[in-house]
Amino acid sequence: MRGSGILVSCLLVMMTGILCRGQNDGKMQWFKDAKLGIFIHWGIYSVDGVDESWAFHNRKMPYDQYMAQVKRFTAGHYNPDDWVHLIKESGARYTVITSKHHDGIALWNTGENDRSIPRLAPAGRDVLTPFVDACRRSGLKLGLYFSLIDWSHPDYPAILKDSVRYKIADDSVRWNRFRKFFQGQINELVDRYNPDLYWFDGDWEHSAEEWQADKVRNNILKHNPNAIINSRLTGRGDYDTPEQNFPVSRPDRAWELCMTANNNWGYHPDDVQYKTPYEVITLFSDIISHGGNLLLGIGPREDGWIPDQQVHLLKEIGKWTHKHEEAIFNTVAGLPYGHYYGPSTLSKDSTILYLFVPTQNRGSIYLKGISNKILDIYVLGTDTHLNHKIVGKISWSPVPGLVFIDQLPITAMDKYMTVLKIRLEGKLKLYRGKGGYN
Ligand code: GLC
After folding, report:
1. Between vectors from CA 267 to CA 262 and to CA 268, what angle results, nearest 5°?
2. I need a labelling partner for 341 at 20 to 30 A (CA). Which of 132, 146, 316, 333 fits?
3. Ligand 1 lined by 146 (C-beta under 6 Å)
4. How far does residue 36's CA lie from ligand 1's centre (Å)?
5. Which CATH superfamily is domain 332-424 in?
């Protein structure tokens, strides 16, 4: 009989769910569940709307002119509760703010030197602490961006792209002084704010040994073993941080894509190349389909005002994330390549599959290699249920047939991205073989 032979000889790779899914990932769990974060770049560069730190480093403007912006940083309309409110409205579960960028100006009242907003700017006060407090009040997880590079510090080797103050090999005493300084600033962040996440940047200018990356990491973890650290501590971090560049293959550990809303991190009034809500939602669906997070950038003006386009983007994303909450947050990466031509996620117990269908795509939605019986297909946020048809199922073969899902009625479609909730009988079982005939 053909059927019995098949069970033995047919190449069946059955995956019961994806192994380890839904298990507790310890300190990384909240991060993996959070999916969306908002990245705030706020510093003296948001006075004239120039490139954050890079403007002087790349010789687009003289250093002194760049630094003079501090004299006009007012924080005049800054209301951290409004910021937090907007961030929460987007659906984001965490935020990361630039405590100090490569230009070396700290937003908080650092005791390590005088280069800070409270000491130098007309704002005249620590602008980081009130934001931290607002996050804590709201339950938003807090990440602090900290640049290891400090191009303004007299003991830091680099300053402009083509000039350095000195070489470490020639003056280790000077470099040790800088190390003591930057590690002292990190200790201040640790002691004063105890953030949930440390977002380091600028590691590329020195080696792990030069930064003493292990020591930095250990000091943080000694204070809070649950603190999460990004990978830009010369690889001594807990998750990967691709920047702007979208991964095509599924990364094999926790990851977060950081991406600007337009083409710049900081406030840049001349840059109106904004991504549309549809584009961001499409990218975001793709990211969570591959188990990652999106850290989306905004750049407030020096007075704390957030550009209208950024507010609009966050609000539109928020309408979508709230409507489709169960398919986004607390889910895990969806189907591996080959089963569905689009993004998907899975409930942690892998009994519910969520398919993301771009608005333009009302054609035939079909699935391959799903061994489970489908109990129900429902359009999230509506009362529409869809029928499906199993096509090409051979009675004697364990290879599952194709699942053709009925066309979506226009009235059930989301403005940007529709999400189908598919209830499976039991945990997801996938056929990953190459077909076969006996
Ligand atoms: C880069 C840039 C920096 C920006 C950061 C955000 O490393 O140096 O300007 O803040 O990426 O990811």
Report:
1. 65
2. 316
3. no
4. 18
5. Golgi alpha-mannosidase II (2.60.40.1180)
b/e burial code for range 223-238 (CB count within 10 A of at least 16 → b): eeeebbbbbbbbebbb
Q: What pTM was estimated for this model as a whole?
A: 0.94
Best of 200, 234, 262, 265 for a ligand 1 pocket test (most atoms within 8 Å of beta carbon): 265
Domain boundaries, the chain: 23-323, 332-424
Residues of the chain with pLDDT under 50: 1-23
**What superfamily does domain 23-323 belong to in CATH?**
Glycosidases (3.20.20.80)
Nearest CA to ligand 1 atom 4: 265
Q: pLDDT for 95-141, tens place per residue? A: 999 999 999 999 999 999 999 999 999 999 999 999 999 999 999 99
